[in-house]
Specification:
alpha/beta, TIM Barrel, Jelly Rolls, eight-stranded antiparallel β-sheet, globular, disordered N terminus
Length: about 500
């Protein structure tokens, strides 16, 4: 299952984090027919127990997937429990009929299916997905680790876990319609960390083909596609070549390619669109997973930035993903239900189709982010990590000054406002003691710069510093943050200025 691996890969060497770091690069068609089933291992005794429901219609475009994170045990890499009301989604009277009516696929995490769901919980999920008329998908790591590499690395859950997943779904009376592979190319071929395999893509394709053969022994018509991260050292070209290599090795196509994106790449819309366009020409549907950020503190924050990403890709960049995925492997959203509230996961799905203009950062009224997309002046910027990235609403991107203190950023709110709260999301590596002085300027200060607050203490990357005065700050137009002490290059992931009532 996807974890916080990307947090480590992306945050440990962002250019904004310190002088010693190098800047990071901002992460079913006719051709998807399976090999003849006669060549696949058969399990007739098991197959006899599989559901006889007709196959789902997977032709609509976009094909819409839903994959909230179920509650699971916490531990290293996952210190949270998923959506608290996950199992309520499968109740007959659950309040998300409109959102569910827009979906085609419900995806379960293989880890939950294999190890954490009780028999009753899994049966509830399987029956609920069937009652909703949705295809059942599972995300799973297809690769078997060798003695030399792959142990404990994402994507290397292996064929035995695949068999366990299949048997548990069958026991629950279900059928797996689709399998989304968990990033095999990246972790077997591109990843260069501890226990890395660095296999050639052709070997990865061969290993994946063997896994598909095993799973088609249980579900002969299952469609198997891939999820890969556009992050760290990966490139769009690596994944277009991967589609070609898979076809050459196995004689058929992956059923789809889903992109798990490092949203910190400034040029991500163009990169995703290049893969999408290639897939459309090549005959493999390309999908995009819409998420918030792992560090988002509330459901509203997570869903708001996910909405901004929808607007940016499909509205501004003209993206037309053939698959659209609403998925989380983060702490948020805690609430999946009900759909008639704006900051629940099913509410987000409903608004995507029925009221897309409501998606994104709150722009008006109490609690609106007055700094969002406003003009930002900075002491200096490193490369393309400009001041605008500190007010784009997305903690996945950052302003990086490219140097040590003293450095500053100043935001013009465009008019005088009453301010209820100032929130600063830290961009910093290494951790250490910092001092940030906050100034305001506007009608209430007579047009002069006035010190509002000092943040002083130990901070680390993605910490959120909050100044919430007892009474709103009156008549503020300009906000300036000067960093006087830090062990890191100066930068901010996000600066938010929240409107008072």
């Amino acid at each position: 299952m996807r974890s916080l691996w990307r947090t480590t890969l992306v945050l440990t060497c962002l250019g904004l984090l310190g002088a010693a770091c190098a800047p990071a690069p901002a992460t079913p068609s006719a051709s998807t027919a399976a090999p003849p089933t006669a060549t696949l291992p058969a399990t007739p005794a098991v197959m006899a127990t599989a559901t006889e429901d007709p196959p789902p219609d997977l032709g609509p475009r976009p094909l819409v997937w839903f994959a909230p994170l179920p509650p699971m045990p916490t531990g290293p890499g996952r210190m949270f429990t998923g959506s608290d009301d996950f199992l309520e989604l499968f109740e007959a009277d659950a309040s998300w009929a409109t959102a569910a009516g827009h979906l085609h696929v419900f995806k379960l995490y293989g880890e939950w299916v294999a190890y954490h769901a009780s028999d009753d919980e899994l049966r509830t999920a399987v029956e609920g997905i069937r009652r909703l008329g949705l295809a059942l998908a599972v995300e799973a790591g297809p690769l078997d680790p060798s003695a030399e590499c792959g142990q404990g690395i994402e994507g290397f859950a292996g064929t035995e876990e695949g068999r366990l997943i299949a048997r548990r779904i069958l026991k629950a009376g279900g059928r797996i319609d689709l399998i989304a592979l968990d990033e095999p190319l990246f972790f077997a071929s591109i990843y260069d960390g501890p226990k890395a395999c660095r296999w050639e893509p052709a070997r990865v394709a061969s290993e994946v083909g063997e896994y598909i053969g095993v799973m088609r022994g249980f579900f002969p018509r299952v469609l198997v596609g891939d999820t890969e991260p556009l992050a760290a050292a990966s490139t769009p070209a690596a994944y277009t070549r991967w589609l070609e290599t898979f076809r050459q090795v196995n004689g058929y196509d992956l059923a789809f390619l889903h992109i798990d994106l490092d949203w910190g790449r400034p040029s991500w819309p163009a990169q995703v669109k290049s893969i999408e366009d290639f897939g459309r020409t090549f005959g493999v549907p390309v999908g995009l997973i819409y998420t918030g950020n792992f560090q988002d503190a509330t459901d509203e924050a997570w869903l708001s930035i996910a909405g901004e990403r929808v607007l940016r890709y499909e509205g501004q960049a003209g993206g037309r993903p053939e698959h659209v995925l609403f998925q989380s492997w983060h702490d948020r959203p805690d609430r999946a239900l009900p759909e008639d509230e704006p900051y629940t996961f099913t509410g987000f799905v409903r608004m995507y189709f029925d009221d897309r203009s409501s998606l994104g950062i709150r722009r008006e009224g109490p609690g609106a982010n007055l700094a969002f997309q406003k003009t930002a002046r900075v002491s200096n910027a490193f490369g393309d990590q400009a001041g605008a990235l500190a007010v784009d609403g997305d903690p996945g991107t950052s302003w990086n000054s490219g140097g040590f203190p003293l450095k500053w950023i100043q935001i013009d709110l465009g008019a005088d406002y009453d301010v209820a709260e100032i929130r600063l999301t830290v961009a910093q590596s290494p951790a250490g003691n910092t001092i940030h002085v906050v100034y305001g300027q506007g009608a209430s200060t007579g047009g002069k710069k006035k010190q509002l607050h000092i943040f002083s203490g130990a901070t680390d990357d993605s910490d959120v510093l909050v100044f919430a005065p007892a009474e709103p700050l009156k008549g503020i137009r300009f906000l300036r943050i000067e960093t006087t002490t830090t062990p890191s290059w100066v930068g901010w992931r996000e600066i938010e200025v929240l409107a008072a009532e």
